[in-house]
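just leaving the lab so this will be short. what follows is a protein written twice so to speak, once as letters and once as structure tokens for the fold. can you read through it and tell me how you think this chain folds. thanks a lot i owe you, the record is right below.

___
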Amino acid sequence: MRSLLLPAIAALLIGAAPAKLLTPNDIVTASPASAWRTIPADDVLVMDLKSGGRVVLQLAPAFAPVHVANIRALARGNYWDGATIYRVQDAYVAQWGLNDSDKGFPAGVTAKPPAEYTRALKGLAVKPLGYADPYAPGAGFVDGWPVAYNAKANWANLAHCYGSVGVGRDLSPDTGTGGELYAVFTPLRHLDRNIAVVGRVIDGMANLSALPRGTEALGFYKDKAQYVPITSIRLASDMPAADRPAYEYLDTRSASFATYLKLRANRHDDFYIRPAGGVDLCNVQVPVRKKA
């Protein structure tokens, strides 16, 4: 104990300021350009609301390739013309689409996709979380995505964390086409491996979470007058270059992310009395930022 106290006492005697204790945000801010990865424009889905708000999604073709292909075809075929947000359930989800419309699908849409609730773990470079996960034998990050996995059974799945986007469906064996989508307000890990997760909201989540809650069962709006109109849903790759939003995420294989993850589990900056010594998968939000 004496050896630990001496440097601190010496610093006080000479008037030296104590070293600043770094926060996770400090690590993100100081991360070099080489630690960031650009999100391809074909993986960016832009939803503009009639109110003027915008919600931007990143798609995950490596985990749900058929559903993501459907979403791209639906966007390019203007399927969502007239779509609305029709369900906002407190502490659960916001859901949008055409709400059981009988409108036909554009060319290229697979009407009955496979159950893309998991994919093979083999071939994925996982950055382990380093702490136990209550929903799977392992958890970590793959190319910026939070995943749960089972090495023995060779499967991995995207986790239902804040902002995750899943595919609305009827009862199994229906898997949903991608025409009805929802965004998660709070971690819903019990839905993992039961619904196809196709992406996440990377910008404009407040434009969903600030909406009035539906008063009917499961948060559906009582009548259509309450529906929130959607002006358009487009792929960024189909937008004019001058209008196209671009984003990048902190590489989960980088040294910067490793430090960020460590500090998320062991906060030691001024506010914290003692570090937690652990962290939940969904509490390590992978940093995403808009590019100039």
Q: What stands out?
A: The mean pLDDT is 94. Residues 37-252 form a domain with the Cyclophilin fold (CATH 2.40.100.10). The longest strand covers residues 228-235. The chain has one domain: 37-252.
